[in-house]
Amino acid sequence: MYQTWEELEKSIENCQKCKLCKMRQNIVFGVGNKEAKIMFIGEGPGADEDRLGEPFVGRAGKLMNMAFEMVGIKREEVYIANIVKCRPPGNRNPEDDECFACMDYLRNQVILVKPEIIVLLGSVALKNILGKEYGITASRGKWVERKGIRYMPTWHPAALLRDESKKVDFIKDLMQVV
Ligand code: URA
Fold first, then answer.
1. How far apart are CA 119 and CA 110, in angstroms?
2. pLDDT given at position 39
3. Which atom of ligand 1 is nearest to the CA of 122?
4. Which atom of ligand 1 is nearest to 121's Cα?
5. What's the burial of 104, exposed, middle or buried (CB within 10 Å: 0-12/13-18/19+)?
6. Which band of pLDDT confidence, cut at 50, 70 and 90, is reported for residue 45?
7. How far is CA 155 from the centre of its chain?
8. Global pTM?
């Protein structure tokens, strides 16, 4: 584990720990307040994120920003990262070996940010952080506490684009974390 952001950021430059490195344009490391109380963890970069090198800047990200505004979260006050830092081709889910290869970076980000609360966006984040036995439908909206961190699983913002009815849940879940 690295003690500083500089060391951690340097360690990921040129990362070739998994096959996603072959197709990426940019590593999408994370963005926001490095001393945030609340951290958000998504799945992995999409096309827009890969192009711009920042998480949640595409359609799902814009929707998430709108939800943030509704509940009074400022994007620059929180820290946002993903399970995998490079885009899975065709927006497929990241595979287990890719998540595993990338997990040390995220672990190190969590250690450096020291958030009180982590919002898990969707099933991939939930299963990789809390365990495969968790399902997003049953778990969303319910706090889980582990080692002094409170986790709030909720829908992935892309799920709201596919099913509008999930927007209400998403807002309710965010209201619990502010
Ligand atoms: N979906 C994610 O899970 N993460 C992003 O950064 C963008 C879309």
1. 12
2. 99
3. 3
4. 3
5. middle
6. very high
7. 12
8. 0.98
Distance between Cα 77 and ligand 1 center (Å): 18
- From the centroid of its chain, how far is CA 123? 11
Count the residues in the chain.
178
Residue 55 CB–ligand 1 contact under 6 Å: yes
* Adjacency order of strands within the sheet including 149-154: 31-32, 79-82, 38-42, 117-121, 149-154, 144-146
Ligand 1 pocket, residue 44 CB under 6 Å: yes
The string of pLDDT tens digits covering residues 64-116 is 999 999 999 999 999 999 999 999 999 899 999 999 999 999 999 999 999 99
Q: List, in sequence order, the alpha helices (H) in the chain.
A: 5-12, 47-52, 59-71, 96-113, 123-129, 136-139, 157-162, 166-177
CA of residue 1 to ligand 1 center, whole Å = 25
154 in helix, strand or coil?
strand
* Closest to 40 (Cα-Cα) out of 24, 54, 26: 54
DSSP state of 14: T
Under 8 Å CB-to-CB from 78, ≥6 apart: which residues?
A: 32, 33, 36, 37, 38, 39, 40, 68
